[in-house]
Amino acid sequence: MYKNHTFSFITAAYGFVFFAGQLTNAAYIPIAPGEYKTGSLGAGQMHTYRFTASAGDSATIQMGWISGYDFAPWVELQAPDGTVLDAKSGDRSAYMQSVKLPQSGAYFIIAKDRSGFYGGDYGLSLVKIPGTVTVNDPNGGPMEPGEYKRGTIEPGDIDAYTFTASAGDSATIQMARISGYDFAPCVELHAPDGTVLDVKSGGSSAYMPSVKLPQSGTYFIIAKDKSGMALPSATPLWI
Ligand SMILES: [Ca+2]
């Protein structure tokens, strides 16, 4: 009496990464407010960025797709005590708009693929209010009423411009495309306390007429691509 047996073996490969507690210098990537970073993720891989902030600050973060089949950006913000404050994802970019930071200390940004499965290249920006806006990006920085600026936006890039105003002033802002396939200008106005006062976008230009400014202090103009992924050139115009 003979029995026939068949055997099959399953082999599997995986990607795995782990972050915990007080991260060592090798485990995280420092990012300064106003900085633009690019990174490359393998399957299952996460990148952890670290920045410091004070209680009451607010953070705006964008991660944009550069390359990678089915790679979909996922960005997550974790507080110093480990609380997940926000998580955003999208097919081509993930945008986290003005999240209030409840504690002083080290914050962590997790950048990964939405499914965790696909790898790819991405760009990542952090803007903190209050904070500096230009670290390694030639665009952005202080702007005077009446000034005209030109800039270039990379995937995941945020160009942040600042101006000072008094309570009761009003601001009118226009941003238009100079070049860039599928580039849709998007402009946001953030108050000194991080409140988002207005957001405007359009196919080839974005116009924000006469927004009342409720506080005295430093305002932030956020200039970006609506989708967060285009490879455009941008022209914010301040009237
Ligand atoms: Ca730029």
Contiguous uncertain segments of 5+ residues: 232-239
What share of the residues does DSSP label as strand, in percent?
over 45%
Strand ordering within the main sheet: 1-3-8-5-6
CATH fold group of the largest domain:
Jelly Rolls
**How many helical stretches?**
0
How widely separated are the two ends? 93 Å
Q: Please, could you describe this protein's structure?
A:
The chain is mainly beta and 239 residues long. The protein has two domains: 29-129, Jelly Rolls (Sandwich); 141-238, Jelly Rolls, CATH 2.60.120.380. It contains no helices and 18 strands. The strands form four sheets. A five-stranded mixed β-sheet has the order 1-3-8-5-6, with no helix packed on it. A five-stranded mixed β-sheet has the order 10-12-17-14-15, with no helix packed on it. A hairpin with a 5-residue loop joins strand 5 and strand 6 (84-89). The structure holds calcium ion (CA).
Which helices and strands appear, and what pairs or packs with what?
Blueprint: E1 29-30, E2 36-41, E3 47-53, E4 58-67, E5 73-78, E6 84-89, E7 93-100, E8 105-113, E9 120-129, E10 141-142, E11 151-152, E12 159-165, E13 170-179, E14 185-190, E15 196-201, E16 205-212, E17 217-225, E18 233-238
Parallel strand pairs: 1-3, 10-12
Antiparallel strand pairs: 2-9, 3-8, 4-7, 4-9, 5-6, 5-8, 11-18, 12-17, 13-16, 13-18, 14-15, 14-17
The protein binds calcium ion (CA).
Calcium ion binds at residues 137, 139, 151-153, 157, 159.
